[in-house]
Amino acid sequence: MSDVDPSSLRAELLERGFARVPGVLSPDEVGRLREVTDGLLSEHAARNAAYKAQGSMIPVTKHPALADLVAHPRALGVLARLGWPRPSFTDGYVISKPGGSPPLFWHYDWFAWEDGAGAGEVPPQLFAMYYLTDTRRENGCLRVIPGSHRRHNALHDLLVEPHGAALTAAADLSDPAFSERPDEEDVPVAAGDLLVGDARLLHAAHANGTAERRTLITLWYQPDFAALPERVQAQLAMQVRRPGEGWPRQARAKLEALFPSYAGGAEPYPRQLYRRPEEVAA
User: Fold this and answer.
1) Which of 149, 159, 161, 164 ranks highest by number of CB atoms within 10 Å?
2) What letters, b where the CB count within 10 A reaches 16 and e where it falls short, cover 110-122?
3) pLDDT in tens, 72-107
């Protein structure tokens, strides 16, 4: 990780919409996270079955051990070197595709497309992805459309509802949301790498054609919460997922130190569908 050039990494993230930082987690840390997530996946088997395309959507607040990952000093150090020394955190999920599961549909994760924050150079929100196994096309690695976080793509016109129930259930794999795109790029990573991406980026995942589980932990950060418009701040503050009452005080404090807060009176944005950058008011 020490060999990563921050200026090159930032340029890649801003231009292509994603960047990989190798070796943020040690093999021991990856092993401990596998134990924790395997336990969660066993406990929430019924919930996992409801997310056929994703495999699971288990909040990281289901286990206090994941607070260490949210507040991981090396990961926060990466964000600081990218120019964001005080990021905030809203929520995160354990997303695990079992062997033989279908692809994950194309989607974006940003919600306030009618606001100028959705068209700017700096990401209004970032995903931080940690895969707990080495990923490749065969076991369901990520695929992205570089540059789609700021430039209109033909696929945008085909995504009617990028998080709809039919997509989650993988009911129709002929839907364009599951299609292979001429401009897509596979993003294989090694276990322990950190993959940082813009929430506006079009991304999906290949089917897991192996017999082994492929587990991912996705965390959501805001690089500069205070710089966002108030209606965006209000919505993000509503999205904060707080830990349960049984959490140890130290683990709870790690999350609370990163949670954003908003005390103004602006009306939170509802979830909005994509709009072309040229249609968005600055």
Assistant:
1) 149
2) bbbbbbebbbbeb
3) 999 999 999 999 999 999 999 999 999 999 999 999
For residues 105 and 162, the answer to whether their CB atoms sit within 8 Å is: yes
Centroid of chain to Cα 238: 17
**What is the rounded distance in angstroms from the CA atom of residue 168 to the CA atom of residue 52?**
6
Give the number of other Cβ atoms within 10 Å of residue 46's Cβ: 7
Cβ within 8 Å of residue 150, ≥6 positions away: 17, 119, 121, 200, 277
Tokens at residue 172, please? 């129709």
Among 112, 122, 119, 62, smallest CA distance to 92 is for: 62
Closest by CA position to 96, among listed 215, 201, 180 = 215
Give pTM, 2 decimals: 0.94
Mean pLDDT, residues 169-185 taken together: 94
pLDDT digits (tens, 9 = 90+) for 244-262: 888 999 999 999 999 999 9
Residue type, 104: L
- Asked if 193 contacts 21 with a C-beta cutoff of 8 angstroms, the reply is yes
Residue 128's SS3 state is strand
Q: pLDDT by residue (tens digit) across 185-212?
A: 999 999 999 999 999 999 999 999 999 9
